[in-house]
Every structure is written in structure tokens, then in C-alpha cells.
Write a structure and sequence with these properties.
single chain, alpha+beta, four-stranded antiparallel β-sheet, three-stranded antiparallel β-sheet, 9 strands, about 20% strand
Length: about 250
């Protein structure tokens, strides 16, 4: 008998190996030669949480020998097996809002959003760019890395599309834009004309807002009629209401 035939017929031995390990193998799913002297036996795995997986027991022999030995036992996924999601590096899993007190998050050395501090990123007023960069470089006060053009573009797009951008529900319902509001503090640098910070504690206080964002707390919003009264309704005059007692109402008296 050929060695592979002997190994293929050793199904019970492969099953006994799993049982001896405390497993409860299901039906035999077949055997496959793994070379001239090894055969892999597959069994359905009845393991909680491993739907579609199967046990693989590799039996091996030697030329001219009738003995069968166990080479390997492993749990493998079959077709349609329940698998864990693909692994994602931690720096790709984090998102806005994940950083908490005491957490450290370092930007990678090759972060495209940042460039070395000595590179001119065009993020300073052209009048002051040469003087500021030269002086800072001489006395060592410059930042090690600055926002690159790509970094500014990503931030601008994120702010434009976010909660305080011109397409937000609040902005769509506003009569005026932030660019004309007294509470609007424009950013410095290349984003000066497009974004600023809101200084109105009753609006988007402390948030970066697009120049064409807007809300109902604009500095030029007119005071509603009535001074300190409700801006939506006229004062309620209870003197014009006829008071009817409950007893009179029950007897039909007027």
C-alpha cells in the first residue's frame, strides 16, 4: 500500500488526536496530500465563536514504514468562515475626539501636513515673510515644523464641510455671514480671508468658523419689538379673558 493511501485511511487516528486534546470534531471534510509523505485531514470545528472553521490534522509517515505519526494540529478558516476584521494600525484607527487628558499623540516624522520650520510655507503676510523668517532663524525662535500647503488645505476643507461651514443647517438659516459680524476674529496667515474664531459666548464661541458661516446671533441682528419681551409673540393680556367659575359652568349660568 502506498504511503499516502495509508495516511489517507488514518481518519480515525486524526480524529482521536483531536478528542485527546479535549476537542469535539464534527464530520470528516476530506483528506488532502501535502507531499509524498504527509496527508492533511480536515474536520468540521464545533468551537463557539468559530463558525465555518475546521480542524486540520496533518499525519506523516516515512518511506517503507507502516507507522503513522502526527505532524501538526491547527484550526483553520474554511469558506465563509467568521473572521476577525482586518488589522488596522493604531494611528489609522484614531479619530477626532479620541484624545483624552494625559494622552500623547505624536505626528509621524513623514506627516505630509507638516514641513520643516525653515521652509517657506507662504503662511505669513508677504510684507513680513522675509524679515520674520530671517530673524526667527537667527535667534532660534522658529517652530521646528510648520503646516504645509497640504496640511492647510486639509484643515480648510474639514472646517468648510463641518458644523461651522457655510453648508451647515445653521448657516443656511442665517441672514448674515460671520465675515460681517463684530464677534468674528479673522485668523492670521494664509487662511485669513476664509476663516476666523467666533467670540460670541451665545453662538459658536471659541470655534473656528468659515467667513461665510452665519447664525442668528450676528452682531447686527436687530432687537425685537417690545424691548425685553418675547421676540416671537405679543404680550398676553389676561384682562381680556372672561373668568367663568367651574360651578357656574356646570349649571349653565353665565
Amino acid at each position: 500500500m502506498a504511503q499516502t493511501d495509508l495516511l489517507e485511511q488514518a481518519e480515525q487516528m486524526a480524529r482521536d488526536v483531536l478528542v485527546a486534546d479535549g476537542e469535539n470534531p464534527g464530520e470528516h471534510l476530506g483528506a488532502r496530500a501535502e507531499g509524498d509523505w504527509a496527508v492533511a485531514h480536515h474536520f468540521a470545528a464545533q468551537v463557539p465563536g468559530y463558525d465555518g472553521w475546521q480542524w486540520c490534522v496533518v499525519l506523516a509517515g516515512a518511506p517503507g514504514a507502516s507507522e503513522v505519526t502526527v505532524s501538526e494540529v491547527v484550526l483553520l478558516p474554511g469558506d465563509g468562515a467568521l473572521l476577525a476584521p482586518a488589522w488596522v494600525p493604531w494611528n489609522e484607527r484614531i479619530s477626532a475626539g479620541d484624545l483624552g487628558p494625559g494622552d500623547l499623540l505624536a505626528a509621524p516624522p513623514d506627516d505630509p501636513r507638516l514641513v520643516p520650520g525653515q521652509i517657506d510655507t507662504l503662511d505669513v503676510d508677504p510684507i513680513d515673510r522675509d524679515q520674520v523668517g530671517q530673524v526667527f532663524g537667527e535667534i532660534g525662535l522658529g517652530r521646528d515644523r510648520l503646516l504645509s500647503y497640504e496640511g492647510r488645505a486639509e484643515a480648510a476643507q474639514r472646517w468648510h464641510d463641518g458644523e461651522y461651514g457655510p453648508e451647515s443647517p445653521m448657516a443656511r438659516g442665517a441672514r448674515h455671514t460671520c465675515a460681517t459680524c463684530g464677534f468674528y476674529l479673522p485668523l492670521a496667515g494664509a487662511l485669513h480671508g476664509a476663516f476666523g474664531v467666533c467670540a460670541n459666548q451665545f453662538a459658536a464661541d471659541g470655534h473656528v468658523v468659515a467667513a461665510d458661516y452665519g447664525c442668528g446671533a450676528h452682531a447686527d441682528t436687530p432687537v425685537p419689538p417690545g424691548g425685553q419681551g418675547s421676540p416671537a409673540y405679543d404680550a398676553y393680556d389676561d384682562g381680556a379673558v372672561e373668568i367663568v367659575s367651574r360651578d357656574d359652568a356646570d349649571t349653565g349660568a353665565r
